[in-house]
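queue> holo job accepted (2,5-dihydroxybenzoic acid)
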Amino acid sequence: MLNEKQLSPEVRAERERFYEKIGRDDYAPLWEQLHNLVTKVPTSDCRTAHWEYAKARAYLDEAGELITAKEAERRVLILENPGMRGKAAITPALYAGLQMILPGEVAPAHRHTQSALRLILEGDGAFTTVDGEQSLMKRGDFIITPSWTWHDHGNHTGQPMVWLDGLDVPMVAMLDASFAESGTTEAQAFLRPSGDSSLRYGNNMAPIDWQPPANKASPLFSYSYANAGASLAAMAASGKPDACHGHKLRYLNPLTGGSAMPTIGAYIQQLPAGFASAPYRCSAGTIFAVIEGGVTVTTQDKTFNAGPNDVFVIPSWVAHEFRVKENTVLFSFSDRPVQEALGLWREQRDAR
Ligand code: GTQ
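queue> job finished
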């Protein structure tokens, strides 16, 4: 905004008349909003926020009584950023939700251009089928449903299954590139045996002449917590934690070294007992879920404690510190790969 105080009433009125006139023809004066568009630092409405699992779980139980997974298509409670209500967004670019499938339920097959990830929070042995390959899910597993892959979920176990969904819904909406289709059958036919993709692509080998698919996603779609936990334990056993991140790994596409999906990066980190991180910020708003232990999160205007299965979000460029008493494992996801691909990603370590 220009400094209105310096303007005489006549000049201001003349300008307002001009703005009105050109407005009727779909023009607007840049100079009235330049500094709101091109800000010195990120300034979205996205706020730091925390969702406690106990409350979420009670709401999911209630939702389970109100509607079946089949009728809902996906029975999900969206985690809406309190600064951006009504937008189905947890950050300006990303969506998050908590999905529950009760014993015997199915979430029917569909596909869409939005990419999805799942971090399994509760249950053991429900399945998701992605492009004809079924995978059983366990707590802590990270599973991807890349753009335009058919997927359906179901639960043949005796317990509810709950997971965190992360999708690039707002990003795809911004680009106006949403396409979706419903399957003709509730559950997909199996095209390959369970475990096939991990045998083909997860043993540091790949079928010769492999070509990246159009959706640019990893052909490996299930990343077990058993494996991630073993990698973290090895790092923690024989190396010093990074001052900002502790011991942190990124989930990758083994064929390219890039992120598992092009629009969403996913990470897992271990903060050893007693660890206090150096303040850190980056330009990728990040959603965290606590897998083990608990963390005290401090930003300039908030402190909260997050325990197992709690979800919290740190917006772009908000400096934050983590403190843990016991050994803690955090999963996280963000739009960092998009920002990196476009040359936009920034970070500040020791951000005091
Ligand atoms: O599981 O396919 O949270 O299509 C939102 C949209 C989950 C899913 C969500 C979806 C899904």
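queue> The radius of gyration is 23 Å.
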